[in-house]
Amino acid sequence: MKKGNMIIKNASEIITCSGDKAKFGKDMSEIAMLKNATLVIENGMIKDIGNSDNILKKYIETNYEVIDAKGKTVLPGFIDSHTHFIFAGYRAEEFSWRLRGDSYMDIMNRGGGIVNSVMGTRNASKEELFDLGKKRLDSMLQFGVTTVEGKSGYGLDFDTELKQLKVMEELDKVHPVDICKTFLGAHAVPNEYKGRTDEYIDFMLDKVLPKVAEDKLAEFCDVFCEKGVFTVKESRKILLKAKKLGMKLKIHADEIVQLGGAELAAEVGAFSADHLLHASDKGIEDMSKNGVVSTLLPTTAFCLKEPFARARHMIDSGCAVALATDFNPGSGFTNSIPLMFALATIYMNMSIEEAINAMTINGAAAIGRADTVGSIDIGKKGDVVILEYPSYKFLPYNTGVNIVEKVIKNGVLVHRK
Ligand code: NIG
Ligand code: FE
Q1: Could you report the per-residue pLDDT of 284-342, keeping only the tens digit for each?
Q2: Which of 70, 102, 146, 253 has a CA between 20 and 30 Å from the CA of residue 51?
Q3: What H or E segment, with its residue span, contains residue 362?
Q4: Would residue 218 be called left, alpha or beta, if left means φ above 0 and alpha means ψ between -120 and 50 degrees?
Q5: How many CB atoms lie within 10 A of CB 312?
Q6: d(CA 7, CA 135)
Q7: Is 396 within a domain?
Q8: 382: domain CATH number?
Q9: Predicted local distance difference test score (pLDDT) of residue 111
């Protein structure tokens, strides 16, 4: 039996989320379900899928690792398309201040926030960051995440930005979870450049970004476009330079105030605009018309005690919504897929089907990988999650509980409850 050859048979349901691009608007309701179905993976890739009786006639089971999924639900591996999982140092104290009533921006303005995590990350060795990153990936895997996007942005200097990206590169080689790397040098202005934002941007654009692009250390470039951080004009400058260097684009957009980040994402051809708590009607229309994935991060809004993004309005306006955790040490220190799913379905009025597409095929599209992951389609990677219950409807029903029983990556069982 070859590694990466697997048959998952007799599943009560297989949800395929079939497709090779983002699902927009009404199409987000379609999850493509097969009942009493069997899935065949060969050499790590999806080979066949269909009714159990038909499929099992065609293959010799002894050539495969066989999992009997009777009474279980099979889904594509989840894609967490927005995280900041490489950092050192924690900000539990800041969270307690927020519970007491301080805002995220109050804390940032008095010298806390992102620059606090920058100190910890600069001081950490590559080995320390690697060990922390590995533990965090292990935890994501247990939630069914088989591909994750990870950002730099806690270095804000040449060496530490590169260190973060290189740690992710190393982790990608040894860990089952695939990593899509994003350069976020424009996450904040570090203390040594305080009051000299222009100089900091020039340093990033002239010294750091070209090195990142040349050495292919990141696929994406992102920017924190926010009042008091980087303006729309500054964000545009950064993103257009990255685009010129061949990088794909993302934006932290309209998180705390309505600045026009969603509109900018459409203008520069970003793959996604993320957060969007305060995105304008025009921004939402622009994203939908220009094929920008609207990545929503409900656990962050929840932890900031801010209103949730207008998911319903976005989908009804024809947007492609993705869901991600935004796992980070500040605004939302949680990688909980069940919490994210509960908030999206209970408070943001997304249907269960829309939420599933949002964390599979649309998450994949947000990181430019919808042709290889995010759905159970022949020819895609054999990345699969098995739930311990017979229907996908248990996802919101078993509220806030992790019901992922098994995780398969490239046709290999990598996690079992
Ligand atoms: O996506 N908003 C900016 N960046 C992160 C928070 C980073 C931090 O607080 O450390 C976010 O929410
Ligand atoms: Fe973020």
Answers
A1: 999 999 999 999 999 999 999 999 999 999 999 999 999 999 999 999 999 999 999 99
A2: 146
A3: helix 361-366
A4: beta
A5: 15
A6: 29
A7: yes
A8: 2.30.40.10
A9: 85
- Considering every ligand atom shown, identify the ligand nearest to the alpha carbon of residue 112 and give its number: 1
Report pLDDT digits (tens) over 244-258.
999 999 999 999 999
Total domain count for the chain?
2
pLDDT score for 251 = 98
Yes or no: say if 146 and 383 are a contact pair by the CB < 8 Å rule: yes
Domain boundary among 334, 349, 366: 366
- Tell me which ligand sits closest to the C-alpha of residue 82: 2
113 lines ligand 1 (CB under 6 A): yes
91-142 per-position pLDDT tens digit = 999 999 999 999 998 998 888 899 999 999 999 999 999 999 999 999 999 9
CATH code of 100's domain = 3.20.20.140
At 2, the pLDDT band (50, 70, 90 cuts) reads confident
Neighbouring residues of 398: CB distance < 8 A, sequence distance ≥ 6: 338, 389
Give me the domain span that covers residue 172. Answer: 79-366
Q: Is the pLDDT of residue 273 over 80?
A: yes
User: Taken in order 17, 22, 26, 27, is the CA torsion positive or negative?
Assistant: negative
Query: 70 and 114 in one domain?
Result: no
The CA 381 to ligand 2 mean position distance, Å, reads: 27
The reply to whether 71 and 214 lie within a common domain is: no
Domain assignment present for residue 1? The answer is no
Q: Whose CA is nearest to atom 9 of ligand 1?
A: 330
Contact (CB, 8 A) for 312 and 318: no
State if residue 300 touches ligand 1 by the CB under 6 angstroms criterion. yes
Within a domain: residue 95? yes
The protein residue whose alpha carbon is closest to atom 8 in ligand 1 is 330
Q: Is 308 in the pocket of ligand 1 (CB under 6 A)?
A: no
Residue nearest to atom 3 of ligand 1 (CA): 224
Specify if 138 maps to a domain.
Answer: yes
